[in-house]
Amino acid sequence: MRPIVAILALSIWVANSALAQDAGNPPLVGVLRSNSTDNIAGASFSTNYRNALAALGYEIGRNLRLDVRLAEGHVERFPALADALVRNGVNVIVTFGEPATRAAQRATSTIPIVAMADDLVGAGLIASLARPGGNTTGVSLLSIELDAKRIEILKQILPAGRRFGLLNDPNTSLPTGLRALAETARIVGVELQTADVHGPADFPAAFAAFRAGGVEAVNMLSSPMLTNFRQELGELILRYKLPTICQFSEMAVEAGCLASYGFRVPDAHALVAAFTIKMLKGARADETPAQQPAKLELVVNLKTARALGIEVPLAILIRADEVIE
């Protein structure tokens, strides 16, 4: 029987002079994520985060321990998972997405929280980028602006398109973001059809609704849950032959998205690792400015374009930072 909550705990005890409270007790970092143990996004994070920590001199199992708690696409599990991390005595909690961060904030007001979310300020998770306040800081992804920008790019790829779908995770979307999307759609001359999804079980019905509604292309809005289950979404994109623009380049490379526009995931995970070490070294979350990844990139997958019967305009290919043949 599959357990209600999947828990991946990696704990090996060895000495470390820089961060260990004592020679046999390296500090413990708790991680809250929405994906499942067999999901490719989990492996991607693990590799990126471990590499970034190693570059800073810290290795899991040598001078640092991880306690990773996975919600498996069920955001309602986050409060119990966050409480478990607090009970386990973690020194820092790393969270991905608004639901995970809110759960951690409810669980503790003293343990530092390093959050990566779509809009830390807009969601009310921190007071400001410069002075976060409370016990939370981290990486804010400018998702409101980028979600709207992806509508513009999708229209440039499909200039004749008149009806676009929005695949939306209501647990992370903000009213300001949806208003920005509606205004961008009005400017470029497309109608929008929104499908809300709370987890992988909702994906097939959303794509069926797009098909029934005459949607010609899809903007997959920013969401850790959608990113984490990109393999399942990629299968639906190709099955329904719906050109889709996504948040991260990994989704164009791995998940059948026609294009992506946003930050590079390894860059964001490297920032999360840097914040983790700062907190372990005694920095105060309320006084540590939150950051945004510096580089944006446009990726176009021509293999997907051919599978969907789409001819990507030359202007987009010239502009792209990466073209996947």
Structure, briefly:
By secondary structure, the protein is α/β, with parallel strands linked by helices.
Topology:
Blueprint: E1 6-10, E2 28-33, H1 40-55, E3 65-70, H2 78-87, E4 92-96, H3 98-107, E5 113-117, E6 136-140, H4 143-157, E7 163-168, H5 175-188, E8 191-196, H6 203-212, E9 217-220, H7 224-228, H8 230-240, E10 244-246, H9 249-254, E11 259-263, H10 265-280, E12 296-301, H11 302-308, H12 314-319, E13 322-324
Parallel strand pairs: 2-3, 2-4, 4-5, 5-6, 7-8, 7-9, 9-10, 10-11, 12-13
Antiparallel strand pairs: 1-3, 11-12
Helix pairs in contact: 1-10, 2-3, 4-5, 6-8
Summarize the structure in words.
Helix content is 39%, strand content 20%. It contains twelve helices and 13 strands. Strands 8-7-9-10-11-12-13 form a seven-stranded mixed sheet, sandwiched between helices. α1 (40-55) links the parallel β2 and β3. α4 (143-157) packs parallel to α5 (175-188) and α6 (203-212) packs parallel to α8 (230-240).
| Radius of gyration over C-alpha positions, nearest whole angstrom | 20 Å
- Topology as a string of helices (H) and strands (E): EEHEHEHEEHEHEHEHHEHEHEHHE
Total beta strand runs: 13
Major sheet: arrangement of strands: 8-7-9-10-11-12-13
Helix content: 25-40%
Average pLDDT:
88
Note the gap between the termini: 42 Å
Please report the number of helical segments. 12
Apparent shape: elongated
